[in-house]
Write a structure and sequence with these properties.
mainly alpha, 5 helices, about 70% helix
Length: about 170
Amino acid sequence: MRHILDRIYGAAAWAAALFMIGTLVMILLSVTGRLLDFHVRGTDAYAGYCMAAAAFLALAHTLRRGEHIRVTLILDHVGPRSRHALELWSHAAGLFCAVLLAWFAVHLAWQSFQFNDISQGTDATPLWIPQTAMALGTVVFAIAIADELFAVLRGEKLRHRAADAEPVRSE
């Protein structure tokens, strides 16, 4: 199961990277169009859709790598039993919020599909298409938080929570 979940998180991260490239392509197309005096309809909207898709699809992979911001001010000053209880509570609360977000994102995409809702811009894109990437990203993120919650329940020490571990990136 671990292998399958890691592959799902990795696939979502690769999709996020592709959407980042899509954002770059749309921006370059828009800039080039201004310089060469031609216009491609919807480049601004598609850049926004790609950026949103990249952000939501990257959530689970970022969580698993320990690169989400964690405020450990209290956790660092309590005993192991209190720390474990606070970890359980925070993961359960995070899972609740992630499931709500996923539910409403999926519901929004489904409603947009049912009502054939289209964007207000000149591109007239059916909104369920970009909303699907957001919904998929939130569902995978909820799965990742559930995965972490079960790891905490089993008493596993996750690799990004090692006391001596340095942040993967420090910018």
